[in-house]
Amino acid sequence: MKALVKHRAEPGLWLMDVPEPETGPGDVLIRVLRTGICGTDLHIRSWDGWARQAVATPRVLGHEFVGEVASVGADVRDVAVGDLVSGEGHLVCGTCRNCLAGRRHVCRATVGLGVGRDGAFAEYVALPASNVWVHRTRVDLDVAAIFDPFGNAVHTALTFPVVGEDVLITGAGPIGVMATAVARHAGARNVVVTDVSGPRLDLARKAGATLTVNVAHTGIGEAQRELGLREGFDVGMEMSGRPEALRDMVANMTHGGRIALLGLPAEEFAVDWSRIVTSMITVKGIYGREMFETWYAMTVLLEGGLDLSPVITGSYSYRDFEAAFDEAATARSGKIILDWTA
């Protein structure tokens, strides 16, 4: 089968013929239809410091996908051949304290699909049935392909109650844009989104942002004044991993405000912890999705009319992966889809 492989420990990706994945009695073999390009995939392509530590070559990349079940193992009961499915890309041990308590999203032994084991940038991918999400209701294939990052957005946006609250989102990348749509759909009063990319701020406005702020030119405090917010923001969602973004967020939160952190910083940086303490601000880290409560919430949100179409800005045949990755690496694009049927 064809697959996108990190074949050597150097920058680049290779489209290669590789064997179809082997499956066991509890596994599902999936014919891939669409995949989404993630920031993780960009890191692996460029072979930066994180990628060199996290990935052993050769490795088939990819963890955002939708496909059709081609076969199931003898022990699989709730997934059938022909089902349209996406997959939870965090494979957990099932035996640690958190897994046994039903908190699989905080398993210490998590292995990432397309990072620690071969992934979905291929004509076929294999997953344990326990990691397969069957789409029981109709869903657009491109949207189904990005359920993984959509789940990050939903997990972040719904970590704290947002009904009637004033929300600040720093970082208008694809997940920040999706979180904007979720927060508005879930009842936030105002959603302010910051970035330094004009095109991405345009996407945030299409997704429902009340106000967007290009922080290269305008401060968050000015946005507060424009909206008449006298005490600051109630809920913050940090999506950029940028030190200045978190510092600005902390400085503009109300007393008792709550911050959900999804953006991964490239290095350690200082934060005004005195402000966090004296303002009694709650800070919570978010990694991935709750299994499978977040997936259920995603499906219900889409059934309720949530529109993710603004975040999808490009689609390519997998054969044109170089152009697709180049576009995904810009500061202008939303989610880029690879079509494995074209």
From TrEMBL:
Database matches in Pfam families: ADH_N, ADH_zinc_N
Known catalytic reactions: L-threonine + NAD(+) = (2S)-2-amino-3-oxobutanoate + NADH + H(+); 2-deoxy-scyllo-inosamine + NAD(+) = 3-amino-2,3-dideoxy-scyllo-inosose + NADH + H(+); 2-deoxy-scyllo-inosamine + NADP(+) = 3-amino-2,3-dideoxy-scyllo-inosose + NADPH + H(+)
Gene, per the UniProt record: tdh
Matches recorded under InterPro entries: ADH-like_C, ADH-like_N, ADH_Zn_CS, GroES-like_sf, L-Threonine_3-DHase, NAD(P)-bd_dom_sf, Zn_alcohol_dh
Compartment list: Cytoplasm
Name used for this protein in its record: L-threonine 3-dehydrogenase
Any one of the GO BP annotations: L-threonine catabolic process
Sites annotated Important for catalytic activity for the proton relay mechanism but does not participate directly in the coordination of zinc atom: 148
EC number annotated for this UniProt entry: 1.1.1.103
Known pathway: Metabolic intermediate biosynthesis; 2-deoxystreptamine biosynthesis; 2-deoxystreptamine from D-glucose 6-phosphate: step 3/4; Amino-acid degradation; L-threonine degradation via oxydo-reductase pathway; glycine from L-threonine: step 1/2
